[in-house]
Fold each of these.
Amino acid sequence: LARHAAGDLARTDDLIDEMVASRAAVVVAPGQAATRALRRRTGLPIVSMGLPPSDPELFASLARPGGMVTGFSDYGEQLAAKSVEI
């Protein structure tokens, strides 16, 4: 099941309700705003694209997110520099 709001934030709640009704096992969110909306309205596991390095509302840390949110950060350069440092 794939859904996209096409930038229309007014459709977000309807799409989330539809995903919950379809009994989705996991949701892939395109960014922070969608991840926050899903986190507030569902108990579904969420894979998020473009997570910030820290956001206590969504996860404990990038290394150990905990809860129902995981995903990918777009901070590759900073993380690569840290890897070289280590």
Note: The longest strand covers residues 46-51.
Amino acid sequence: ASALPATGHAGDAVAASTLTTTLPYPRVKLVHLTDLKADRELRLSYPDNASPISLLKFGKPVLTGMGPDQDIVAFSRYCTHMGGTLQFKADTGAFHCPLHYAMFDAQKGGLTVIGQATDNLPQVELEIDAKGDIYAVGIKGLIYGRQANVLA
């Protein structure tokens, strides 16, 4: 044990988070609450123009939903398996990948339903201000093909 360098006491350790980015996420206004219609997908991009997302309003409360009815969510449109651009289908409430047929349940936090994807969809963190404006403020999960979600 004396051959090992002194590392201090366990009580001296400061917990480092592995869930942070090296650059801050931008706060981007997406739409106003009144611009959303139930079961209609709104295609946007976040945190930059090279990252397509879907903003959805379900008209009923969903897991991780935001807004007065807890029914608004947004997700990356890149499949976590091989980066295929996902298509949202309102009849299933899920994103479908055209490459290998993976499915992700948008009503259950982007949960992988079937297919070769091993990670759930990255979910856009949303904020809604007192005027009803919806902002994207971060992403939970890593966008496919990136080492960090926010590019320098």
Note: DSSP finds no helices and ten strands in the chain.
